[in-house]
Design a protein that fits this description.
The protein has helices spanning 35-47, 63-71, 75-79, 96-108, 123-131, 134-143, 158-166, 188-197, 218-226, 231-239, 261-271, 285-300, 318-323, 334-341, 346-354, 394-408, 414-418, 422-439, 451-467; strands at 3-5, 12-14, 18-19, 25-26, 29-33, 52-54, 81-87, 113-121, 147-154, 171-177, 201-205, 275-281, 304-309, 329-333, 360-364, 370-374, 377-381, 470-472. The protein is an alpha/beta fold. It has two domains: 3-206, TIM Barrel, CATH 3.20.20.100; 254-472, Ribokinase (UDP-N-acetylmuramoyl-L-alanine:D-glutamate ligase), CATH 3.40.1190. The chain has a seven-stranded parallel β-sheet. Strands 12-13-14-15-16-17-18 form a seven-stranded mixed β-sheet, with helices on both faces. The chain has a two-stranded antiparallel ribbon with strand order 1-2. Strand 16 and strand 17 form a beta hairpin. Helix 18 crosses helix 19 (451-467).
C-alpha cells in the first residue's frame, strides 16, 4: 500500500482509505450491518496497509460508529486513524457539541478521535456552527485530548469552500466530492488545489459517485469496452494523481499478463536490439521473477539495459537486487528509492543505491528536480520550470529521453557511449529531464512531448539548469 504525507501532519496516510458509510447490510436494511462480512472487509483492508477509517454520527443510523468500536479493539485500533463527523443537523444547541462528541467516543470505544470533521458543510450549516463558536469549542476539545485534529467535509460552491478554508488557520484536512465526472462540481479541482496550497490534507469522498461510475448506462459501458478501459481503474488513476508528483498507477495487468519470457529472450537474440527497457518493473510477478534472466540475456546480446521501477507487493525488492549486476541504468522516484533503501533522506538513498553497482542511477524528486550518480559521482539537478497541467507520463517521457540519447551515441557499453565525458552525461540527463518536464504541460501521458517543444525548453532553460547542478560529496 502506497502512503503519502497527510497535509502538514507528521504522519503518512494510505492512498486508499476505508469508508464506513455503505457497509454490507442484512436484507437491504441500511440500519442492520452484516457484521461478519463488514468485519472481513475491514480487517482485510487494514491487513493490507489501509490506515485511515472514515465514519460519521449518522452512518447506518449510528451503528457504523458502534460497529467500528467493536471490530477495531486492541491491535486494529493501533493501526489506524479514525475520522468521524459532527453534522449540523444533529446539533440543536451549542451544548450538544460535547454531548455528541462523548457519545461518539463511547460508540467507538476509544479515548480520542484522530480526525474530527464538521460534516457536510454548505453555507447555512457552516454559518450555524460558526456562529455557535464551534471552532472555539473544538480548540478546547483538542486541548483536552478528545480530538486530535479538526477538518470538515463539504457540499457547496467553490466560493463557500474558500470562505470556510480561510476562516480558520488550523484546519488539518478537508473532505470533498471528487471524481472524473466532478472536476468542476462543488469544490472541484480548483478547490482541491486551493486547500492543498494552504497545507490541508485532501480526503476524497465519492471517487466512484457512490458506485454509480462503476455501473454506467449501457451506451457508456460499450464505449469503455471498445477502448478496453475500466471505469473503476480509470477513477483510481484519476484520483491518485497529485500536483507536482509522478502518478501512482493502479492498472489491470491486461495483455502484459500474457508475456512469455522465452519469447522475449528468443526475440532479443534474433533481433539484437540496441536497448532493452523494462518499465514499471514491480507490477507483474512474471517480470519480477524473471528480471535477472531478462537483463542478463539482454547483456549477452550486447544490449544496454534500462530498468524503471514501481514499489512491488509487500515492498520485496529481491528481484532488483538479483538483477542489479546486469543493469546499466536504473530510474526510480523518491518513494521507490526510500522503499528500496529504507532511507528517507534522498542523498543517503542515492548513496545506498550506488552500492547495487549499477553504473547510472537516477532518483526523481518530481517538482524538486532529480539526483543521479554515475561511476560513483553524485549530482543534484534542479528542475525545469514549467506549468504542471497533468503529471501523468512524466517518468515515461524521462526514460524515453534517456533512450533517445543513449541510442544516439555510438558504442557498445554505457561507458563507451558516454565516453566518460561529462558533457555527454549532462546532455543526456538534461534532455531526459526536459522531456519529463514537457510531459506535464498538457493533459494526457505524452501529449506535450514533441521533440520541437523539448528542444525549445532546453534552449530557454538548459543553461540555467546546468548552472544549478550541484556536485554532491562522496565518502
Amino acid at each position: 500500500m502506497r502512503k503519502r504525507k497527510f497535509g502538514k501532519l507528521d504522519w503518512e496516510v494510505s492512498v486508499l482509505g476505508f469508508g464506513a458509510m455503505r457497509l454490507p447490510v442484512v436484507n437491504g436494511d441500511y440500519n442492520r450491518i452484516d457484521e461478519l462480512k463488514a468485519t472481513r472487509i475491514l480487517h482485510y483492508a487494514i491487513d493490507h496497509g489501509v490506515n485511515y477509517v472514515d465514519t460519521a454520527w449518522m452512518y447506518h443510523d449510528g451503528n457504523s460508529e458502534r460497529f467500528l468500536g467493536r471490530v477495531l479493539k486492541n491491535i486494529y485500533r493501533e493501526k489506524v486513524k479514525i475520522a468521524t463527523k459532527l453534522h449540523y443537523h444533529a446539533v440543536e444547541t451549542p451544548g450538544d457539541f460535547d454531548k455528541i462528541l462523548h457519545e461518539q467516543l463511547k460508540r467507538l470505544q476509544t479515548d480520542h478521535i484522530d480526525m474530527y470533521l464538521l460534516h457536510g458543510l454548505f453555507q447555512a450549516g457552516w454559518h450555524k456552527l460558526r456562529d455557535w463558536n464551534v471552532l472555539h469549542w473544538a480548540e478546547k476539545a483538542m486541548a483536552d485530548g478528545y480530538i486530535g485534529h479538526l477538518g470538515f467535509s463539504f457540499h457547496d460552491s467553490f466560493t463557500v469552500f474558500k470562505e470556510i478554508v480561510d476562516a480558520y488557520d488550523n484546519w488539518a484536512m478537508c473532505q470533498i466530492q471528487y471524481n472524473f465526472l466532478d472536476e468542476n462540481v462543488q469544490a472541484g479541482t480548483k478547490g482541491l488545489h486551493y486547500a492543498a496550497d494552504k497545507g490541508l490534507a485532501i480526503v476524497v469522498m465519492e471517487p466512484l459517485r457512490g458506485g454509480h461510475l462503476a455501473h454506467p448506462p449501457q451506451e457508456i459501458k460499450e464505449i469503455w469496452d471498445r477502448n478496453k478501459r475500466n471505469p473503476v481503474n480509470t477513477a483510481k488513476i484519476f484520483m491518485l494523481k497529485v500536483k507536482g508528483e509522478e502518478p501512482r498507477y493502479y492498472l489491470d495487468e491486461g495483455a502484459n499478463a500474457q508475456i512469455n519470457i522465452e519469447f522475449i529472450t528468443r526475440s532479443m537474440k534474433k533481433s539484437r536490439p540496441v536497448i532493452f527497457y523494462s518499465g514499471e518493473s514491480g507490477h507483474l510477478a512474471l517480470i519480477m521473477g524473471n528480471l535477472k534472466k531478462l537483463v542478463r540475456s539482454a547483456k549477452q546480446t550486447g544490449c544496454l539495459t534500462i530498468v524503471d521501477t514501481v514499489i512491488p507487493p509487500q515492498g520485496n525488492w529481491n528481484f532488483l537486487y538479483q538483477a542489479a549486476p546486469f543493469i546499466d541504468f536504473l530510474k526510480c522516484n523518491q518513494y521507490e528509492a526510500q522503499s528500496i533503501t529504507g532511507k528517507t533522506d534522498m542523498k543517503a538513498a542515492l548513496a545506498a543505491l550506488e552500492k547495487l553497482g549499477i553504473p547510472l542511477t537516477v532518483v526523481s524528486l518530481a517538482k524538486n528536480g532529480l539526483l543521479f550518480s554515475y561511476n560513483n559521482l553524485r549530482y543534484k539537478v534542479p528542475p525545469f520550470k514549467v506549468r504542471n497541467i497533468d503529471s501523468a507520463g512524466a517518468g515515461d517521457a524521462f526514460n524515453a529521453g534517456i533512450i533517445i540519447k543513449l541510442a544516439q551515441w555510438q558504442g557498445g557499453s554505457l561507458q563507451e557511449r558516454l565516453k566518460d565525458s561529462e558533457a555527454r552525461l549532462f546532455d543526456t540527463i538534461l534532455f531526459a529531464a526536459a522531456s519529463g518536464a514537457q510531459a506535464v504541460t498538457a493533459r494526457g501521458c505524452l501529449a506535450g512531448v514533441e521533440r520541437s517543444a523539448v528542444l525549445k525548453l532546453l534552449g530557454e532553460q538548459a543553461e540555467k539548469v546546468m548552472a544549478g547542478i550541484e556536485r554532491l560529496l562522496t565518502r
